[in-house]
Every structure is written in C-alpha cells, then in structure tokens.
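Objective 1.3, modelling of assemblies. Example input:
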Amino acid sequence: MARVYNFSAGPATMPVPVLEEIKEELLDYKGSGMSVMEMSHRSKVFQTILEEAEQDLRDLMNIPDNYKVLFIQGGATLQFAMLPINLKKNGVFDYIVTGQWSKKAAEEAKKFGKVNIVATSKDKNFSYIPDCSDLPIDDDADYVYICENETVHGTTFQTLPNTKGKILVSDQSSMFLSKPVNVSDYGVIYGGVQKNVGPAGLAIVIIREDLINENLDESVPTYLRYDIHAKNDSLYNTPNCWAIYVCGKVFKYLKSIGGLEKMAEINKEKAKILYDFLDESKLFKGTVDPSVRSLMNVPFITGSDEKDADVVAKTKAAGFENLKGHKSVGGLRASIYNAMPKEGVEALVEFLKKYEKENA
Amino acid sequence: MARVYNFSAGPATMPVPVLEEIKEELLDYKGSGMSVMEMSHRSKVFQTILEEAEQDLRDLMNIPDNYKVLFIQGGATLQFAMLPINLKKNGVFDYIVTGQWSKKAAEEAKKFGKVNIVATSKDKNFSYIPDCSDLPIDDDADYVYICENETVHGTTFQTLPNTKGKILVSDQSSMFLSKPVNVSDYGVIYGGVQKNVGPAGLAIVIIREDLINENLDESVPTYLRYDIHAKNDSLYNTPNCWAIYVCGKVFKYLKSIGGLEKMAEINKEKAKILYDFLDESKLFKGTVDPSVRSLMNVPFITGSDEKDADVVAKTKAAGFENLKGHKSVGGLRASIYNAMPKEGVEALVEFLKKYEKENA
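Predicted structure (tokens):
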C-alpha cells in the first residue's frame, strides 16, 4: 500500500491513525458484532458514539452550554437555505462576500428575504479581505454572514467583522477545527465536515440556543427546521451515522495530539514552509494579499497557464494529488488541512524547488 | 471477531463480502493511494465509482432510459417534502396511508397543498392493505402516493393501486432491491438506502424525466430541487460519497449472486421459514393479514407484554440483536433484509422453538 500526498480541497486527506482504527473496527465495532454502518441509530452503542462525538467537539472548541451542536445532512449547500429560513425575523440579511462560497450563500439567501452585500472583495477577484471595522450594517439585519476561510480563493479573516451588535454567522467549513475560536463571538458557526474533518455528507451546526426559532412558518419543510433537529438531538430521522462516527474519531485524535492550540501551531508551521517558498521563488507566487493568507488553502501561479498545467501534471506523476487550482483562480492550489503531514508540505516544496531550478 | 445476527429495521445488516472488500480498500482504494472518504468528488476515480454505481443499479432494476437516478442526502424524511414541492401542479396530493411512514409522508405533504387520504388501514392498526382497485382518486391529483412496504407494521402491497391514470409515487425504502419491480409502473420510486442497501445518509430517487420541473417557484431551496440534482448528475454539491461507494459495492454483489430475481427467491425462502413457524406456534403469532405479509419486516407477538420483553432479552443474550418491536405494534420484529443470511433466520426459529417448548 502506497499512500499519496493528497492536496484536495475537499473531500480531503484524513489522519492515517484514524483510518487504521476504522479499518480495524469495520466488521465488528468494539465487540458489538456489527459494523457501525449496520447499527440502528436508536441503539445504545450508536447513542454512545453520537454523545461522545458531541462531547469531544464541545471539549475541543470549548463550546458554551447555551449552544446546541447539530449534525445535519445536505452539506453547507443546505445550510445556505436553512440559515435565512430559520434566523429570519425582519427578513434582512447582511452578507460580506469574499469569494465563491460567501457569494453562493448570499445568492441562496435572496430566496428568503432582502440581502445586502455590506462588503466585498470582488473588485480584485476576491484576493483580499475588506476592512470590516465600520460597515453599513442594516438596522433590521437578522444577521451578518461571513465565510471565514474561502476555500477557492485562499483567504481568511484575521479579525472578525464589527457587526454592530448583530448576530455573526460564520461558515468555517474549510477551517473547521484548524485553530481555537471563541464560540461566544458567534451566533452560528457551521461547516461541512468533508474538508477538515471527515467524510462528506454531514454539516455540523453550532447555534446559540436562543436563536432556534420554534415558531417558523408551517410551510417550512420539517427537515429544514433547526428546532426539530435540536429537540431530537440530531435524531429526528436517521442521521449520517458513519460520518458522525468518523468525525468522532477525528475529534478524539485531535484531543490526543494536544487540541486546537497545538493544531494551530502545527498548521502555522506547515503553511509557513509553503508561503516562505512562494515568497522566495522567482517562478511561483501566491495569489492573495499576504496579510490574509489562509493556513488551509494556498493558491499559487506561475503566470503562465501552460506552465501551471505542466507543474500540475508533473506533481501528479510524482505522487502529489489534486494540486490543480479552481477554474476561477487558475494555477495551482495546495489544500494543507489538519491531516496533511508536515512531510507532505516539505516534499511538495522540495519538488517545486527542483522544478524551478530545472525550468529556470 | 464474532458477528451477531442483526435484525435491525435500519440501519441494518450488510453483506459480509462487501464489508470485507471495504475493509481491504480502506486506506488505499484500488491503488489511488487514498481512502474513498478522502477523494475529491470531482476526481476521475470518484466519477468512476459514481457512474458504475448508477449503471449497476440501472442493470439490476432494469431502469428505462427516460428515468433519472438521483443520489440525495436527507433520507426519506427530506423526500417527504421534496416530492410535493417538485411534483406540484394543481397542489392536490392523494395518499394511501398504510402505516407510520405513509402517514408521516402525508402529514409533511400538507405543508405544500391539499392532501386527500384516499384509503387507509388505520382502523385495524395498519395490519392490512386496503383494496385499492377503485379509489376516489381526485381529478386534480398530482400523484398517488404509497409506502410499498411498511417497515413498522410489516405489510407489503401485493398489487399496485389503480391510480386511474395519475402518477404513482412509491417509497420503497424497506424493500428496495428485494425483488424485481417494473419501473415503468411508477412516476417516482425512492428509498432511503439504510434499510436494505447501505449506510445511512442517502436516498436514491428514480424519477421519470418528464416529471422533473424546471419552473419551480424561486423560493424553493436549491438543494430541494430535483432539476438541480438531475442537471448536475447528483454532483451539484458534495454528495455522500461514502454511501454511494458502499451502495455501489452492494449493487455489484447483488449482480454477482444472480440479480433481483435470485434475491427475491432467497427472500421468499427465508421469510417462509419464519412465517411457517409463526403459523404453527402456539405461543407466537404474526400481527398482520397473511395475504399482505412483508418479506422484509416480520412483526410478531406472544400476546403478553411481559413475555415479549422476556423473549427480546433472551434472544439478545443469545446473539440475536434488535428484535424489539416498534412501540406502535409492540412485541417483536425481525427485519430479514437481503443481507440477513438464511442461517440467521433458521437459528432464530430454532431459538424461538426452544423457548416455546421451555415455556409451554
């Protein structure tokens, strides 16, 4: 068995020790005589898996007691609709648009109310984060929305926007569990787990309890109601049990290596190796404002589409997978999530250095 | 490793050869150097998994070319809403209510239009299937809805209702792939896969192309639109890749053992062993009209709640899991899906016979 270095933006690489445990338990989970895939979601053995997953996440993120943790199918895409539907009071939603994902979220929200784009970095192809210290927040805004790390464009908010007292909603999909965050700063944090945690098919929604509306319009589909998921502890219907199990393993793994403080340290160190190289290179350069560089998604270009394609092909041949950049940015993108080992980043930089030398 | 006989109603037992293959491929799928959980859903390797899964399902069910196959998250619960939302023309929906699941579906549909209950077996706790040969189908009905096999109550439609020309929509969750069906008889067949196929978190929707409405109201959440899933071949957003992969393996397995004709034969044989015992037993008896007995879900009782509980406890101690009946029926329920081996049913009957003798 030869594992590759997988730089996919999501679904993405996972910790090998977690995969090995899963493999070991595949036909018989801890003496239950069955696979987790075969377990009734109402059985005691699965209940324990679910409860431990939630508790470990609470420990990792230091989630206050007045926040609910929900495990919901449909990915971030379904959340783009569930958020405005469930948080709607005045029907006014303020969005900060800093890339593809916040743009998509804002477009979906228009179905359910008035959307104000209170700031955007669209003018420079989303290569920076606008100053969000004094935005024209609507007095009636039900919330202010950000995508805190833009997967495609490779930017991260360094400080949270000043929402002028309004609720902050943050899509953390591509930075989920990459560093400590102060949950109390947010009304809702959510993320699709398939980038930085586990297998696709699950979004985790961390929502302040008082924001869960039980008096939604009768016409809202039951599955789209946070209050239904909350009241039933994510077991209103059969959840994505497998993804919850795998994410639970990743949570335990992160605790075992020292939690999110340690993870943030490792992530900074890994990203620095790549960014330092890009800053020194005469061939490759990063595409975003250095002050808001993502520690997770690193887009870079040579300046020539032909050369970009050549690098992608040669890295692939050398065992570095999924380095092709998103079509809206071009070039290359290395997603170096939690589970990407430092050795993977070092090997990539080594390879790119060699390529640069040979193609000087 | 000791495997139990798992009679869970869902998530449920899976074929051991499939689980073994998955285990083998867990860290390195066919030389890709990664787990299926880590693969970009846009990568060639995953595209092949998705395409083969669809093709194998088409082969197994003999799905005509004018039907689309969609892989959607959210389970049958989300379909309860998506069906009326997407099939709405006149806003009139006719439901046949034969148990818990068709009842839930009908309740959800009320959010989106007028629901007529055109037949029901509620008067006898859903223990039979009403005569559906001449129902008061509404002239304006957008469709007629059935749950073809009721998981909780253990009944199956033996003949399809006369819909008087209206579209038939069938929830086949707990009988999906248990026998051949004539897809052309239906407008939509759908099922949550976690009962008779694979892991939870995926519904498969087989829909006649002309029923896919592209002119839905702007206010419909994007994720809830069949046209969006259809246009994007189930890749509008990241799907439940893992469940698609596992279901694909089950499809190949079913083909390898002789397809749905063979599966139906095996299922009949297995169910007969259990029903023959129940018909002969002086202690245990089935709870439904023998003419509509499910081959998948077999509820039975002793007539004493105390004795029922004792049997459940003793079977569990003997390695037969999840035999407790649903609270609305009581007693016991053996779900004997495709993957339950004949030996499991035989062993259970043996055990029940012994129990009966010892407690005569």
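Chain B has a mean pLDDT of 97.
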